[in-house]
Amino acid sequence: MKFLLPTFTLGITLLLGACQTLSGLESPEVSVSRIQLSSISLFEQQWDLTLRASNPNDRELTLKSLDYEIYLNDEKFARGLTDKSVTLPAMGDALVTTHITTSLLGSLQKLQSLQKNPGQPLQYRLEGKARVAGVPIPLSFDKQGEIALPSLPMP
């Protein structure tokens, strides 16, 4: 019983500290800045995806990682992960370059059906979680927008 009270007090103190860290903190906004096909092999495609991460807070944030899924015209295109830390200035933004991999046949078929109107932008949705230094839980983001895809070779 003697040790229970200090342990309980420590737990409450840590919990209140975590809540104070989150109070008033807005999630970073993440959008697609650019997508570029970087390589094609017999079985898969490598894409370079540049994301713009914006910090709506009045203090700088250090992004430790992003875990996201990108949808094109409401169809899942790929999942991506980052592991490089990026510091977002207060009320500022930074570019984060990531790489995604898709299967060649599946993604070419999807993209050909998506690009029935060449030159027209595609609707995208980017949803995921950002891990921020000093914040105990991941912060969610969900962004919709338009993007034009590069021309793809026909199989």
TrEMBL record:
| Biological process (GO), any one | response to desiccation
What is the protein name stated in its UniProt record? Water stress and hypersensitive response domain-containing protein
On the tree of life, the source organism's domain of life is Bacteria
Residues annotated as domain Water stress and hypersensitive response: 30-150
Question: What InterPro entries does the entry give?
Answer: LEA_2 (IPR004864), WHy-dom (IPR013990)
Q: Which organism is it from?
A: Alcanivorax hongdengensis A-11-3
Q: Which SMART domains match?
A: WHy
